[in-house]
């Protein structure tokens, strides 16, 4: 599946949603603006995101995200492994890029590289341990990103087990 060169604006829910079971999906060169307009998802614990990716071995690159309106939504919300590179993320209320191991996706490496993230009130990149340990990726590499936030930590890493390799470099 290739999702490329789309202009996605003023959406009540997720800009792009890639469900479990999809492998090797490429999302590139899209403009995603003002998504998550419906706040009811955030109130019920299921917020909307610019991209919500549960699939494995994905490539999300060269996209522009501007405006995730609901309070719980990320610009790019990841549940598995793959590559997130060369994206521009701005005007989100939670994290620019977030990883949560609450869907199957073990075994691969999550690489977050060369992105530009600027948030109003959330983290630049958040790596959460909120999920099942047997669903954790094998390794996480966060490198060469430009990150800025107004009032939160630029990178948050929660309590992962020592068996998970996490590398931060050049951010």
Low-confidence residue ranges: none
Distance between the termini: 30 Å
- What percentage of the residues does DSSP assign to strands (E)? 35-45%
Counting H and I runs of at least 4 residues, what is the number of helices?
1
Range of helix content? under 10%
SS content category: mainly beta
Write down how many β-strands occur, each being a DSSP E stretch of 2 or more residues: 19
**SSE order in H/E notation?**
EEEEEHEEEEEEEEEEEEEE
Described by strand count, sense and barrel closure, the largest sheet is: 7 strands, parallel
Taking all Cα atoms into account, the compactness measure Rg is: 14 Å
Strand order of the largest sheet: 1-4-7-10-13-16-19
Rounded mean pLDDT is 90
Overall geometry: globular
Give a written overview of the molecule.
The radius of gyration is 14 Å and the shape is globular. It has a seven-stranded parallel β-sheet with strand order 1-4-7-10-13-16-19, with no helix packed on it. It has a six-stranded parallel β-sheet with strand order 2-5-8-11-14-17, with no helix packed on it. The longest helix is centred in the N-terminal third of the chain and has 4 residues, at 40-43. With 171 residues, the chain is an all-beta fold. It has one helix at 40-43; strands at 2-4, 7-11, 16-18, 26-28, 31-35, 51-53, 58-61, 64-68, 76-78, 82-85, 88-92, 97-99, 109-113, 116-119, 125-127, 139-143, 146-149, 155-157, 165-169.
Layout of secondary structure:
Layout: E1 2-4, E2 7-11, E3 16-18, E4 26-28, E5 31-35, H1 40-43, E6 51-53, E7 58-61, E8 64-68, E9 76-78, E10 82-85, E11 88-92, E12 97-99, E13 109-113, E14 116-119, E15 125-127, E16 139-143, E17 146-149, E18 155-157, E19 165-169
Parallel strand pairs: 1-4, 2-5, 3-6, 4-7, 5-8, 6-9, 7-10, 8-11, 9-12, 10-13, 11-14, 12-15, 13-16, 14-17, 15-18, 16-19
